[in-house]
Amino acid sequence: MQELHDAPLAPLTTFRLGGPADRLRTATTDAEVVEAVREADADGVPLLVVGGGSNLVVADEGFRGTALRIATTGFALHGTHLETAAGENWSDVVARTVDAGLAGVECLAGIPGSAGATPIQNVGAYGQEVADTLTEVVAYDRRERETVTIPHADCGFGYRHSRFKADPGRFVVLRVRFRLEDAGGLSAPLAYAETARVLGVRQGERVAAATARETVLKLRAGKGMVLDPEDHDTWSAGSFFTNPVLTEADWAAFLARAAERLGPDVAPPAFPAEDGRVKTSAAWLIDRAGFTKGYGTGPARISAKHTLALTNRGAATTADLLALAREVRDGVRAAFGVTLVNEPVTVGCAL
Known about the structure:
CATH topology of the largest domain: Uridine Diphospho-n-acetylenolpyruvylglucosamine Reductase, domain 3
Helix content: 25-40%
Number of helices: 9
Number of domains: 3
Oligomer: single chain
Number of strands: 20
Strand content: 15-25%
Strand order of the largest sheet: 6-7-13-11-12
Low-confidence stretches: none
Shape: globular
CATH architecture of the largest domain: 2-Layer Sandwich
């Protein structure tokens, strides 16, 4: 297991921000992951688990403890059953399932990060989310000090949420298992209106899985959501804020504020959510509050391609990024009475 001291963390994140870790260990097998976690826990050393770094905001001061980079490999298909190691690149996993003619994750193409991180956030995009096809998570349980297999029913999945996110210090994901669909090379039914529209079909119809994947990649690239080292619009964590999910009372109050600000004919995006709540669009709120694409004059700005992405233009610090995030959050709250919540995990800092 490779070990470095006073190791920069910025190159391991898609924001390319953050100071060094006291120690950085890179594990290439499940056994090495468990060994590193157990050693840190036994010594009482703070532990930061790093996968693809696409959901991390690390403080400029860095991390006083051990950062464990999970670089495990392994991809196995048995019929429609998939098992992938936590360290596998997620976008590559999607491509390989599509190449195998299987459906279920093709619209999750281009999402940066590792496979092991996907159940933590219940990663989703373009009408699909990991919870749709995931069957089990194999993880090391730091509380019980053993490797456990957690079935889907016990993962506590919700919108960008899971049991793992709710109890962030307990589980370290080792492997993820999925059950996909053999639809003769076709995609799962298209659930996202934009994807269906671009493909010229109705929602609920199927297209070739490879076509669905390629379409999603093009849509994501047009919004700066596919990593490109030459494009600062992709130096981000993707969507920085989650879409607000409002109670009936909060939704009514929001509509009143929106009508007062934008006029009585305004129609904010509305999508049904659990328990009678309503989900609306964070991007819509940000834009209507005056934070348009490209907003900002400093080294951290809103993406020129998508209002939900906050970006490092190449010389930003984490402090710059957080200042912009606070400005956007506070501006939306002042305009509409809705408080946006950051999606990336903050390490050694807070919004």
